[in-house]
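Task: fold both queries, return tokens.
Query 1:
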Amino acid sequence: MASLVHYDGSSGFLIDSNVWIDCMDNTSPWQDWAVDQLQACSEQGVLHTNVLICAELLVPGTAPQALDALLDVYDTQRSPLPWQSAALAAAAFRLYRQRGGAKTAPLPDFFIGAHAAVANLTVVTRDATPYRGYFSKLKQVNP
């Protein structure tokens, strides 16, 4: 399993899908916060997304070209899931099941949290609960 001894979240920001959704949704009460965070974080480091986050954003029918255009506004890097994140996601899922979770497959948040941990990224999210509960050392930006 990957060692997180040197993890400090300083290699950039992994932007959770809820932040991108809030940024795109003119009716979201979180839109201003999301846009402000994207701007502030992009001035401090590199923004990242991964295939799971992009899939979540495409589910409602978002055109891939529109998503690419949004990601390009903030020079967002399309980062592959690190192979080492599989073990961390699996460990989080085992803990979830031990705590009574009913899902039968690892949740996207487990892969996103594991990706951030392995790649030394800070997660920007409106929903801190899954990351706080399963990746307690993970640095986050949230309201």
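Query 1 returned. Query 2:
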Amino acid sequence: MAEIRTKGFNEIQRDLQDAQAALASLNGPIAEIPINPSDPESVQQAIRKMEEAVDRKVAPYGNNRLVAAVVTAAKDEYRKALLKRFGSSQ
């Protein structure tokens, strides 16, 4: 028989506070990353560096599933924005 783990109110509240703090850390500039728009490898390198910068900003909240979901979505949006801005369909 599988065990179902439920969270108490305090743990849920802490998760929500951590998620709020993580979101606040992503508000504003994330990193300054040099990029050569005419070099596809430079664009890909900028995407990797952006993802690493996001991960560093939210590292204190790494065990929070809410934060993980937001980070995944944020990195996807940043990646799409970089590719759109620099004209790459990679």
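Both queries returned. Flag for query 2: Residues 65-85 form the longest helix (21 residues).
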